[in-house]
Amino acid sequence: MSMLKGANLPVQAQAVRVELGWRSGPGVPDVDASALLLVSGKVRSDADFVFYNQPAHASGAVRHEGKKTGADGVTDTLAVDLGRVEPAVERIVLAASADGGSFGRVPGLRVRVLDAASGAEIARYESQDATVETAFLLGELYRRQGNWKFRAVGQGYGSGLAGLATDFGISVDDEPAPRTAPAAPAPVRPAPVRSEPVRPTRSAAPAPPAPVPAPTPVRLSKVTLTKDAPSVSLAKQGGTSGAMRVNLNWQMRKQFRGWGAKLGRAVANHSDLDLDLCALYELSDGRKGVVQALGNAFGALHQPPYIHLDGDDRTGAVSSGENLTINLDHKDRLRRIVIFVTIYEGARSFADLDATVTLQPQHGAPIDFALGECTVPSTVCSLALITNTGSDLVVQREARFLVPERGVSPQRTIDYAYGWGMNWTPGRK
Q: What is the pTM of this model?
């Protein structure tokens, strides 16, 4: 049962999942969940802000786990371990922001608090009166006499996530810092020749300590690749170091269309579906290979190929889904990477699936794009091409649904399409 605005109730679970949910559709803005850890009504620093560009608090108490699309719509999830929240933190504000429109165009906006252990719903608040707001404080977890409670808030902001964050003490800079030319060196003048010995002087007073540099403001920008704007520079986004996570999540359409209808029921059951996230790589020294679950070729992060596959998932969930991680600290060793996905079992084409790709650099804005509808009997799709231009890494949205020829594997099909020139042998998981 949904709570009324201003109502509160106890939270007895040690850890909870906070699900921000809404119904997606044409013209509906994208929505993002975030959390602010407050002391005396303000954050202690920008590190107390957890959102898509800063997905984990240093204490480990709050994590942004990401989005998932299901039968009831889209959810963006925060995981909160109440037992790990620092004693000084009095409140955890749970917020939502709309990207590309106002909340008046977002149907079914709601927040749910679930017991992380059992999955049981503890609290639910459904927003009913959104109009021109672009950010919402939906609820908050707060301490009361040593115990945790949840309050439904429902306070809107017309100034977006930046305005909401600023109100709680976050310094926001959504624009890249301007590049300044280095100062010209001062001309060197010869020292004057002294005709008399230099007399000792009193020692100069110690120089004052150097000022502590101001913390770098958080950046709220995101990048969405489309057919009209299919590529982005990682250097311009500040994302050329650290680890970059590549995630694929998917849902099954309620009604089968295109080739899925011609082929019959292409997907038997969501739990039977097994998609494999893979990567072809070429290193700067000419070595080529593949990272994939097939043949247990999971790669390595701190040695060639500097790409690692976390695991083999069948759910499509962002929080526990299948992810590739690329070590951008070794970007100079990477020449090009093709990220692709294959259907291992459970479907005969991508025609019945909706999929979204997210690339999350450790430093820099997240990059995401949708694959769109598949209209051919494809079992392999190239997602993105990452190319080292010599001075930059460029991410190109591919979203190419390929149809393997009879007797040709999906991996070999990708190889042919991108001219990798590798030898392939059958493999198993």
A: 0.59
